[in-house]
């Protein structure tokens, strides 16, 4: 059968950066094709070309045998290419049905509306999605909201679906359901481009894998010809994955004692609801939970971005909930925020400047009242090499970096001062395996030195591998605490969905 999509020698440059040098690969009808590549390899740029956001400098694309050039996202969608975005484009107050209607060009009349509703229901039943068309979107889980995005594309008869890190916000059970749906779609002859850094998923779902490296398509491998080690080796080089060993040295001292802590959001609702937790010296305490169950509020109240409505935070036994000691305590905490682009970095400043945002007043970076640019550059060079940051031309704004590389800049900055406490929200989300392992190594080394880490993550493999304990959050509370050596992904997954409280 002829290929549905053929990409030939695509090149795309930005000022001073070759994002894609020469990329060629094809997607067959009824195929799940994974794109794998380290941070900055060019995956997002390629998807932006496929979905009509960017135009390539060179090369050609054929879709269903016809050469295509997309002048806009609308043109790509009209052709049958749809992307399930990471940031859902849904109106929370509207119903599922209304949100799907909104995605169409023009509102159908009453009768066609009924027919349309019946068609959507058919899709829901066929894929066993269990969605209520009349439920307002804000009441739905993140997993259910992703179904809506998928249905929108299916209603538009998309033949090629692009999913970029779709499981980042799902429970293990929801991920399994997503994979079942993708398998069904494949059986129906739909094609999928799947992007993920999670090797377990890549192994489970891919028919073929194309490895991108430095803007070039290195190779395409067929199922049966690849395993995790081979893919990792191709992507980042066999000797590039940092090796580390966890040496558990959890002390008796409680460095943070959170007691019945509640935090309200702007609407006055409790994001954190009587949450209690203890973090010990040298401990890596994992927080599992589906995004939106209070993890972010917990990190924000600990790092001074939000105030506690009630309850207590004790640091080394001292109540700092509202005291003046709180600000100096917070100043010493390292924080890797969830929102990289608006909280984590100053987007228009260079990589060099972003790396010293917390330490620019230090004598090492000053000469009299002026900045010591040579020292700042030296520091940046060191960190760029240490964290393998793909930084682009000197002085370029950090917002031009790929998502994974922006994350590396934040981590390099936050961990450079040997903090006593690290609060990390999804620190390895979107990082390639080499970089994720480096972050794990940094945390393990930090723990051996006595650093205490609150690691909020949706990646259960990560939590099970690196944590001393895992607390599970559901609806603003800790609903259970488990020992990673005596639990399973499934057990944690059930707790995450509120089905079982340990
Ligand atoms: N608008 C832009 N201006 C300048 N450079 C850009 C722009 N968009 C991407 N780049 C650069 O192109 C390269 C490829 O980036 P891209 O975002 O496609 O990588 P990626 O494989 O998706 O990475 P990640 O896994 O980190 O998301 C990077 O070096 C990035 O800095």
TrEMBL record:
UniProt keyword terms in alphabetical order: ATP-binding, Cell membrane, Membrane, Nucleotide-binding, Repeat, Sugar transport, Translocase, Transport
GO molecular function per UniProt: ATP binding; ATP hydrolysis activity
Pfam families in the cross-refs: ABC_tran
Annotated compartments: Cell membrane
Origin superkingdom: Bacteria
Major site of localization recorded for this protein: membrane
Listed PROSITE patterns: ABC_TRANSPORTER_1, ABC_TRANSPORTER_2
ABC transporter domain ranges (all copies): 5-239, 256-500
Coiled coil: none
Membrane topology, as annotated: Peripheral membrane protein
Keyword set includes DNA-binding: no
The keyword Translocase belongs to this UniProt entry's keyword annotation: yes
InterPro entries per record: AAA+_ATPase, ABC_carbohydrate_import_ATPase, ABC_transporter-like_ATP-bd, ABC_transporter-like_CS, P-loop_NTPase
One GO CC term on file: plasma membrane
Protein name: Sugar ABC transporter ATP-binding protein
Organism: Geothermobacter hydrogeniphilus
Lineage: Bacteria, Pseudomonadati, Thermodesulfobacteriota, Desulfuromonadia, Desulfuromonadales
């Amino acid at each position: 059968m002829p290929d549905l999509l053929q990409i030939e020698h695509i090149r795309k440059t930005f000022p001073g950066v070759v994002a894609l040098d020469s990329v060629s690969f094809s997607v067959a009808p009824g195929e799940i094709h994974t794109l794998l590549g380290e941070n900055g390899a060019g995956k997002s740029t390629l998807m932006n070309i496929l979905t009509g956001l960017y135009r390539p400098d060179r090369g050609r694309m054929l879709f269903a045998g016809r050469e295509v050039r997309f002048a806009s996202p609308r043109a790509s969608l009209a052709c049958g290419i749809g992307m399930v975005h990471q940031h859902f484009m849904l109106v929370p107050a509207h119903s599922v049905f209304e949100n799907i209607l909104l995605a169409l060009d023009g509102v159908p009349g009453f009768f066609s509306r009924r027919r349309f509703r019946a068609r959507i229901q058919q899709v829901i039943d066929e894929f066993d999605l269990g969605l209520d068309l009349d439920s307002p979107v804000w009441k739905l889980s993140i997993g259910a909201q992703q179904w809506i995005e998928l249905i929108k594309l299916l209603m538009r008869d998309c033949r090629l679906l692009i999913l970029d890190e779709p499981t980042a916000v799902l429970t293990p059970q929801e991920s399994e359901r997503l994979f079942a749906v993708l398998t069904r779609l494949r059986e129906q002859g739909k094609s999928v481009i799947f992007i993920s850094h999670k090797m377990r998923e890549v192994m489970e779902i891919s028919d073929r894998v194309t490895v991108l490296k430095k803007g070039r398509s290195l190779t395409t491998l067929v199922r049966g010809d690849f395993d995790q080690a081979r893919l990792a080796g191709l992507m980042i080089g066999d000797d590039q994955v940092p090796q580390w060993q966890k040496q558990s040295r959890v002390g008796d001292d409680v460095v943070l004692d959170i007691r019945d802590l509640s935090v309200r959001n702007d609407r006055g609702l409790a994001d954190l609801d009587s949450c209690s937790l203890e973090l010990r010296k040298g401990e890596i305490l994992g927080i599992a939970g589906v995004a939106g169950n209070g993890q972010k509020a917990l990190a924000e109240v600990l790092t001074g971005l939000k105030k506690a409505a009630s309850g207590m935070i004790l640091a080394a036994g001292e109540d700092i909930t509202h005291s003046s000691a709180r600000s100096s305590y917070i100043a010493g905490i390292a924080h890797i925020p969830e929102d990289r682009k608006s909280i984590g970095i100053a987007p228009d400043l260079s990589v060099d400047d972003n790396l010293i945002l917390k330490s620019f007043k230090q004598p090492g970076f000053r000469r009299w009242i002026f900045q010591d640019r040579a020292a700042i550059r030296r520091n940046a060079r060191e960190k760029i090499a240490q964290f393998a940051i793909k930084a682009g031309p000197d002085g370029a704004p950090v917002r031009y970096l790929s998502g994974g590389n922006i994350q590396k800049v934040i981590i390099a900055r936050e961990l450079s001062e040997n903090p006593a406490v690290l609060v990390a929200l999804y620190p390895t989300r979107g990082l390639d395996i080499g970089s994720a392992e480096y972050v794990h190594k940094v945390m393990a080394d930090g723990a051996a030195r006595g650093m205490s880490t609150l690691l909020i993550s949706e990646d259960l493999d990560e939590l099970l591998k690196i944590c001393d304990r895992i607390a599970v959050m559901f609806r603003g509370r800790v609903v259970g605490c488990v020992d990673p050596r005596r639990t399973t992904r499934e057990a944690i997954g059930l707790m995450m969905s509120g089905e079982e409280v340990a």
